[in-house]
Amino acid sequence: MLESREWYLAAYAAEGIPTSDHLKLRTVVVDIDSIPDGHVALESLFISVDPYMRTRLTGLQDGISLHQFQRNQLINGFGAGRVIRSNDSNYKEGDVVLNPFSPVAEYCVIPSRFLRKLDPTNGIPLLDHFNSLGPPGFAAWLGIEVLGDPKPGSNVFISAASSAVGLCAGQLPKIRGCRVIGSTGTDEKVKLIKEKFAVLNHVNPHARIPLCGMISQYNKVWTEREGVRNLLNMVGKEVKMEGFIISSYLDRFGDFAEQMESYL
Q: Which of 7, 164, 222, 252 has the most CB atoms in a 10 Å sphere around its CB?
């Protein structure tokens, strides 16, 4: 038995910034002596706090089809942990693994089917698996390599280009030989983008627009979120806009990791 501190959802936050009224810390006891078949006990090393998690704290289904965290239940996210007990022959004590659904807790017992064991001899720092080799890099890779698929010499526009996803998304088309244009969130640059370089006014015919998130809107209810007024360009220029969430593409994570590791 181990005592473990864990973060749980005490109340939903439909709008605004979540506070300690919504997320609370408690201590529980974890049984690591009777682990079911196909499970492992993990000691958490790192957990990534990603923007999409905000959408799971609202209690609403108003834009992203992810299950809401349940009240009085611990929350989860992308994490790395060390195996301390195992009832799966593929994992042994001391293995360091990635878990896309890691409980935000010091210790946990979880199914092993979604785990990915890390190779300690490849020289890749563990924290790289939380940026270019983690959720930000995976979102960028899916948007560029899988959905966008830009051809060499084409133009690629990256919004929120200085964000964790944007930094990776800007590099991938450059590797393909594309021309990359990015926007960021300062007031001056937002004004420039809105007044002079409104993207949909200058989009090329048959362009593809993958959408992986809208971080600036997550703390707002849907009636207060900003809209787009020039969508008619998408009709006349036959533009394809496609949203995606990375949990729908977990079967491609191995392909992503292999390709991205080759760039490091």
A: 164
Q: Show Cβ contacts of residue 150 under 8 Å, excluding neighbours closer than 6 positions.
A: 144, 156, 173, 176, 178, 208
Check if CATH label 3.40.50.720 holds for domain 135-261.
Answer: yes
What is the pLDDT at residue 35?
A: 92
What are the residue ranges spanned by the domains of the chain? Answer: 2-124, 135-261
- Per-residue pLDDT of 25-45, as tens digits, reads 999 999 998 899 999 999 999
In sequence order, the 6+-apart residues with CB closer than 8 A to the CB of 6 are 25, 26, 27, 28, 74, 103, 104, 105, 106
* Closest C-alpha among 107, 116, 118, 114 to residue 84: 107
Angle CA 246–58–168, to nearest 5: 30
Collect the ranges in the chain with pLDDT lower than 50.
none
How far, in Å, CA of 49 to CA of 40, rounded? 23
Task: Indicate yes or no: pTM above 0.90.
Answer: no
For 115, list phi and psi in degrees, rounded to 5: -75, 150
**2-124: in CATH 3.30.390.30:** no
